[in-house]
Amino acid sequence: MSHRVLGSARTAAAGPLRVTPVAGRIGAVVTGVRLSGDLPDGVVVRIWDAVLRHKVLFFRDQHHLDPAGQVEFARRLGEPTAAHPALPPSDERRHGREHGCEHVLDVGDAGSRRADEWHTDASYTDRPPKAGVLRAVRVPPHGGDTVWANTAAAYDGLPVELREVADRLWALHTNRYDYVRPHPAGAGRRRAPVAPVTFETEHPVVRVHPETGERALLLGGFARSVVGLSDRADAKALIRLFQEHVTRLENTVRWHWAPGDVAVWDNRATQHRVVHDFGDRPRSLHRVALAGEVPRAVDGRRSVPRTGPAARAGG
User: Fold this and answer.
1) At the fourth CATH level, which superfamily is domain 82-312?
2) Domain TauD/TfdA-like: where (predicted)?
């Protein structure tokens, strides 16, 4: 099936909304829609249904969007969060001044660490975002692609024996290695070497998706140890074993950005990373994250925050 038509709803400058898969297990291009906060409810429902099915959607030529318009579109899909959970109020205000909204994070900020390690956004918090909306503002003519992986397909592809092991495991996620760092006072555009707010959360290695019921592997670069396993070498080996299933090429899709492109992904069933092959050429992409739920394990238990604002507030 080369494409499917998701109804006949139209916007002012669009034809029928169509979803065309671009890889076997993840990813689809959506055409026939001009993204905005004024989309008809039926179109929004169909877009979200496609997100749940394909895990990541790509919309080309959305040049009309600015930071405020991006946030208004994102708001139709969920509740936007602050730009980044570890940014102090001063940095949140700076992001608001620079990008027009406190909800917008520039993931191409030259002061940040490279986001070139596989990760699920903010998985070190007790409520990782349910989704992300990423808009290409300035991109190199070649290089700088982003790759997404389907963590539900990765779980489904595990041998039964490994699924049974994964279902019982919990991992500790921490932001000690996050690519976003706050500005130290008086340091201009430089970043502090360590974030002042440390998050640590115990998550099930397998989470049950709250909308689809799918089981997905919750790992990535923020998962650094296995709960209850004191031997670090054994813990790393286990994490590597399941992580390598996530990033198998068959479970991935790679997107080459053009200015005006927008990607929307289900953060509860994916990981992603940038391909850092563009040297020092400018690359600026604006992300809006949508508030998520506390992950639930196969046995019904919920994730447990160890440190961080959510833990101090009682989760």
Assistant:
1) Clavaminate synthase-like (3.60.130.10)
2) 19-288
